């Protein structure tokens, strides 16, 4: 609606709208549309020299191309987002989110230790405000990195510490993924009832959004959680679509 209401696509409103639109299309697994939105938004921001939009524009593009398996291009975009954000002295959101996206990318390349160091360094200056959206997302990424490294106890501690904050602040998608991660931990450590409860809570939050990609990002963990819910008698088109998509086109395994 915003794009239709403006007379000229070359405007700050158009750039911001396109950058924003890339994320839902990414979550819906419309990767081509997400890429078009992210690239066009960045192009307009560059042409109009909208310096305040460039960090989030590069971060969004990097996040999209990571899902497309273009890890080197994504890494370049995300590092540029972080550098621009620091250089401009802008608010922390773009900088911290870019760090989270980059850690996600590095794990997909098998660079787990590097990813952990990056995310810990990015979060360190802001730990006094640890209930902000971007910090909660990055702490969840850190928990996923712990899972990737086989540190189940550390992952469980991190996920459990996020449950109260995400519920209180009503961070619905981050909460869905925290519930998912904790459900996986419980299901694989003999606590099936608690695991199924959290898995069902995650699904209840995420299914109405259609954000298929967020489960697909979890790779084998998604298979474990989805099959557990289906095996418990839960009927869900969303879960079936996740499992079908995994079989049809294996995705780059990254943490999220």
Annotation keywords:
0% strand, 256 residues, 75% helix, mainly alpha
Secondary structure elements and their pairing?
Elements: H1 2-5, H2 12-27, H3 31-47, H4 54-67, H5 71-88, H6 92-108, H7 112-123, H8 133-148, H9 152-169, H10 172-187, H11 192-206, H12 212-216, H13 220-231, H14 237-248
Helix pairs in contact: 2-3, 2-4, 3-4, 4-5, 4-6, 5-6, 6-7, 6-8, 7-8, 8-9, 8-10, 9-10, 10-11, 10-13, 11-13, 13-14
Number of strands: 0
Number of helices in the DSSP assignment = 14
Give the low-confidence spans. Answer: 250-256
Overall helicity: over 70%
Class based on secondary structure composition and strand pairing: mainly alpha
Shape descriptor? globular
Mean pLDDT: 91
Q: What is the helix/strand order?
A: HHHHHHHHHHHHHH
Largest sheet: none
Question: Could you tell me how far the N terminus lies from the C terminus, measured between alpha carbons in angstroms?
Answer: 30 Å
| Beta content | under 5%
Question: Rg, please?
Answer: 18 Å
């Amino acid at each position: 609606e915003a794009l239709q209401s403006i007379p000229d696509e070359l405007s700050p409103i158009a750039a911001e709208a396109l950058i924003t639109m890339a994320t839902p299309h990414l979550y819906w697994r419309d990767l081509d549309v997400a890429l078009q939105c992210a690239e066009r938004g960045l192009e307009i921001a560059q042409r109009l020299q909208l310096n305040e939009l460039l960090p989030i524009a590069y971060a969004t593009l990097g996040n999209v191309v990571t899902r497309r398996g273009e890890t080197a291009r994504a890494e370049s975009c995300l590092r540029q987002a972080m550098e621009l954000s620091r250089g401009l002295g802008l608010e922390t959101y773009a900088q911290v989110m870019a760090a989270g996206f980059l850690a996600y990318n590095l794990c997909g390349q098998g660079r787990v230790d590097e990813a952990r160091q990056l995310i810990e360094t990015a979060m360190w200056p802001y730990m006094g405000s640890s209930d902000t959206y971007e910090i909660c997302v990055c702490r969840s990424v850190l928990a996923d990195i712990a899972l990737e490294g086989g540190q189940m106890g550390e992952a469980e501690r991190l996920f459990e510490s996020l449950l109260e904050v995400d519920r209180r602040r009503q961070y619905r998608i981050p909460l869905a993924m925290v519930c998912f991660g904790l459900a996986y931990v419980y299901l694989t450590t003999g606590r099936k009832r608690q695991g199924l409860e959290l898995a069902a809570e995650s699904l209840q939050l995420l299914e109405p959004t259609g954000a298929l990609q967020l489960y697909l990002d979890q790779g084998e963990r998604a298979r474990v959680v989805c099959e557990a819910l289906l095996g418990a008698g839960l009927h869900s088109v969303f879960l079936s679509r996740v499992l079908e998509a995994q079989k049809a086109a294996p995705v780059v395994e990254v943490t999220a």
